[in-house]
Amino acid sequence: MSANPAKALHLDDLAVGDAFTSAEHALDAQQIKAFAAAFDPQPFHLDDEAAKGTLFGGLAASGWHTAAITMRLLVTGGMPLAGGIIGAGGELSWPRPTRPDDRLHVVSEVTGIAPSRSRPDRGIVTVRSETRNQRGEAVQVLVSKLVVPRRPA
Amino acid sequence: MSANPAKALHLDDLAVGDAFTSAEHALDAQQIKAFAAAFDPQPFHLDDEAAKGTLFGGLAASGWHTAAITMRLLVTGGMPLAGGIIGAGGELSWPRPTRPDDRLHVVSEVTGIAPSRSRPDRGIVTVRSETRNQRGEAVQVLVSKLVVPRRPA
Questions:
Q1: pLDDT for A81-126, tens place per residue?
Q2: Rounded Cα gap, residues B110 and A51, in angstroms
Q3: pLDDT tens across B22-74, in order?
Q4: Tell me, which fold does domain B5-149 have in CATH?
Q5: Helix crossing, B29-39 with B63-73: angle to 10°?
Q6: What is the CA A40 to chain-centroid distance, rounded?
Q7: Which of B74, B86, B119 to mutate to test the interface with A (most CBs of A within 10 A)?
Q8: Which of A110, B7, B13, B139 is a good FRET partner for A74, with 20 to 30 A between their CA atoms?
C-alpha cells in the first residue's frame, strides 16, 4: 500500500535530478465512466456516442481522474518518500486527453529542494511528475511541492 | 446533471468579476476512506487512529478528493458554462485539510477573459474557485483556464 519503509527516502537522501518511474495503470471505459458519474458528470466523460460530437472527439477521462490515478501510482511505489506524499498544492496541465485504452505510468524528477527555515525536521521538495500513456505521450504534467522529513538523528 | 442549457453562459455573457456559488456537498469519513482506498491509500486518509500520529493530526481527505468534489459542485450547477467545464489545467493549493464532517461549497470568480486568436468561436476564461467548508474557510483554491464557446451567430 505505502512504500516499503526500509526504502523510503528522507530529505537527506534526495538530490535535484533524481528520477523515479511508477508502475503502470491500465485504464478502461468503465473506470472512466464510473469516476465521471461520481465527480465529473459531463457527456464527454460518460458516454461514447455523446463524446463524439464534443471537443474531445470521443470518450476521454476527466482530468481529475488522470490526477487521481497519478496519485495512486505515486503513492504505491512511484515516489517512495518517508512520511508519505504530502503536497500543499501544485501546477497541473493536461496536454492531451486520457483515453479508455490508455496504460498510464508516471515519471517524476526532483527539480528543487529547500530545507524549511521554520521547521528544521523537514524540507520542501519540488517534483515534476509527467503522466505518460503507452506511446510515451504526456497526458498530465504536475509540478508539486511536497513536505519531506529529514532522517531522524 | 449538467447545467440547464437554457441558462448556460457563453463567452459573450461573461465579464471579469462575475461570481458563482455552488450547492453544498456533505462529506463523511466513509467517503474519505473510499476515495483514499481507490486513489490515495495513505494512513492519514484511511484510518482515524493512524491519522492522529501524522502531520494532519486526524483523518483528512486526499487533496485530490477535495479537487474531485469541487469539480462535481462546479459541473452540477456551480459554474453554468455552455459546452461544459473544460480546463487545460490550473494552479491548485490546499491551505487547510478537508475533514470528515465538512460541508463544502465552491465560490468562483471570473478573473480574466481572452478571446482565442486562432479559434474565433471560443475564448479562454480564467476562473478562481475557492472551495470552502461550513465555517467559510478555504480548503482549496483552484485557478483554472477554461475553454468557453462564443454564442453561435
A1: 998 999 989 999 999 999 999 999 999 999 999 988 888 899 999 9
A2: 27
A3: 999 999 999 999 999 999 999 999 999 999 988 899 999 999 999 999 999 99
A4: Thiol Ester Dehydrase; Chain A (3.10.129)
A5: 110
A6: 18
A7: B86
A8: B139
